[in-house]
Design a protein that fits this description.
heterodimer; A: alpha+beta; Arc Repressor Mutant, subunit A; 3 domains; 9-stranded mixed sheet; elongated; B: alpha+beta; Histone, subunit A; two-stranded antiparallel ribbon; 3 helices; flat
Chain lengths: ~475, ~100
């Protein structure tokens, strides 16, 4: 039987505020345990949460960027459950009236086609603390520094039909929240994580199958693998005559398996109700207008501009706008060269990204600045070096050996454009290879490459390839 | 609507309350009465009424995003039953 996979994602993006959602404690990562957990975060009696304005602004930005409705009135609710890293006995979240709803996002698939994924809602909530189960004499240690950190939970429609689409959607949201500067996107530190809802149904069937939820995936690769695993598991159960049970599962990256979690708490009844400590949040039209005026250029707008202003292909524009930093790097390079956008794009996508991947670095750590790269590109432009030699210069710049001119000078890499000199080399080579010359002249065209190779070898790659080609053609046929 | 003994036990479990066997019928009756009152209110047509989220007709105040809390861990932990390495210790919980 042919199966159709149905996927919905719940992404938790930690909002990049200075202080917590309901208290004035710091949200900085990596502090000593419990040094950033104040009375409100500890749920001491008599405290009152007060909402952080920046959180409302950030959610509004996200809403505007995804064509969502930003609710004029939204309400915080208590989600009740007991766990020691949640000292109040409830999480403050939003239930019936989220701050953002009914948006959409366009993703680009491998074959270049686009697909629109609906965003059901995005609501504000507080994060819980951390439980440490190492050996504390048989007890559990609780660190409440993370308790009260603002989260935006972004819930997609079940519009996703494959693991690849899920990853494309997640990457798009990841890039978007960083463009908007509302989340640092750091997946290792848990600032951006994802729960995946998966079900399968026979192709053509209208009703959804029973779904499972796999929690807390903090890398794109894990999302892809967890979905593959879960789809396989569900199809096997159904094909063997079994039934899928609605449950929460955990993915184990070491064994590449998902397993059931909290089966006893399946019938979890959160008993949501409006939090009496917090009043409804009202967002004025003027506030939305203000936020709108502060919005940065979004990835899709930037991509369109790169295509129309710089003549880049859709694929290249997509790669270069994947992150705001990379796009800035590219634009700074083009500005410093004052043109040659396509050449700049090739160099950023090829050498710069290649070197970053090789060294496991982020674009912010690039050892060659846009100004340095621009210096090199200008030397390609004015024929001082060939593309091939330029790669050598780039390596040297990456290793801190100075700017392009300094490297070209010290390594003697200046391209030979002296026609007389090139002709001299060509004459020598033709004289030394009479056999090849005869074969070439009797129709073995392929040997042209042999002669080019010899000239480049003789000149240590420094001869201008275009000139070599032209002069060789002339000499060989005369 | 009237609650069964098992409903009361479930609600008590979710709220982590321990009830004595003898008290359960009393709770069942009291809670059922509350639900009956709600049912009575349900008779009223509220189609054009926005559900009330808060008894006060006011709007949430917002605070500026500033760190205003200093570290007072020593003070908070002085009243905790057990602490170690800056962590609050609680009976072991593991899934």
């Amino acid at each position: 039987m042919e199966w159709e996979v149905v996927i919905g994602l719940e992404i938790h993006a930690q909002l990049a505020t200075n202080s917590k959602i309901f208290s004035g404690a710091s949200t900085a990562y990596g502090a000593e345990p419990n040094t950033q957990a104040c009375e409100v975060d500890l749920a001491l009696p008599g405290v009152l949460p007060v909402l952080n304005k920046e959180v409302v602004k950030m959610a509004t930005k996200f809403g505007l960027a995804t064509g969502s409705t930003v609710a004029q009135r939204s309400v915080f609710a208590r989600k009740n459950y007991f766990y020691p890293d949640l000292p109040k006995g409830y999480q403050i979240s939003q239930f019936e009236l989220p701050i953002v709803h009914n948006g959409k996002l366009e993703i680009v698939l491998d074959d270049g086609a686009t697909k629109t994924i609906g965003i059901t809602r995005a609501h504000l909530e507080e994060d819980a603390g951390k439980s440490l189960h190492e050996d504390f004499h048989g007890m559990t240690g609780i660190d409440l520094n993370r308790a009260g950190t603002p989260l935006l939970e972004i819930v997609s429609e079940p519009d996703i039909r494959s693991a690849k689409e899920a990853v494309a959607y997640m990457k798009k949201i990841h890039s978007l929240v960083q463009y908007l500067e509302i989340c640092d996107g750091n997946m290792q530190e848990g600032s951006f994580r994802c729960d995946v809802n998966v079900s399968v149904r026979p192709k053509g069937q209208k009703e959804f199958g029973t779904r499972t939820e796999t929690k807390n995936l903090n890398s794109f690769r894990f999302v892809e693998k967890a979905i593959h695993h879960e789809v396989q598991r569900q199809i096997e159960i159904i094909e063997n005559g079994g039934e899928i049970i609605q449950q929460t599962r955990l993915y184990n990256p070491d064994t590449d398996e998902t397993r059931s979690m909290r089966s006893k708490e399946e019938a979890n009844d959160y008993r949501y109700f409006p939090d009496p400590d917090l009043l409804p949040v009202m967002i004025e039209e003027s506030f939305i207008e203000q936020v709108k005026s502060e919005m940065p250029e979004l990835p899709d707008e930037k991509k369109q501009r790169f295509m129309s202003d710089f003549g880049l292909k859709a694929y290249d524009a997509d790669v270069l706008t994947a992150s705001r930093e990379l796009a800035n790097y590219f634009e700074a390079t083009v500005a410093a060269v004052a043109g040659e956008a396509k050449l700049c794009a090739n160099w950023v996508q090829g050498e710069v990204i290649g070197a970053l991947n090789r060294e496991g670095m982020e674009i912010s750590q690039a050892q060659v600045s846009p100004a340095l790269l621009a210096g090199l590109i200008k030397r390609i432009q004015d024929n001082t070096v060939s593309q091939k030699i330029a790669k050598q210069v780039f390596e040297a710049m990456w290793n801190g050996e100075g700017d392009a001119d300094a490297v070209i000078e010290s390594k003697g890499l200046k391209q030979v454009t002296d026609i007389g000199l090139i002709e001299q080399v060509i004459d020598e080579i033709i004289a030394n290879n009479p056999g090849q010359l005869e074969q070439y002249r009797s129709g073995k065209d392929k040997l042209f490459g042999f002669f080019v190779g010899q000239v480049m070898k003789q000149t240590q790659g420094k001869a201008n390839p275009a000139q070599v080609n032209e002069l060789l053609r002339k000499k060989l046929s005369s | 609507m009237s609650l069964e003994k098992s409903d009361v036990e479930k609600i008590a479990h979710l709220a982590r309350l321990s009830l004595s066997e003898d008290d359960i019928p009393v709770y069942a009756e009291n809670l059922s009465n509350i639900l009956q009152l709600v049912e009575q209110m349900d008779q009223v047509n509220t189609d054009d009424v926005t559900p009330m989220a808060h008894p006060l007709d006011a709007v949430q105040r917002l605070r500026a995003d500033e760190v205003t809390e200093a570290n007072q861990r020593e003070k908070f932990q002085s009243i905790a039953p057990q602490v170690e390495n800056g962590l609050y210790l609680v009976p072991k919980v593991i899934e």
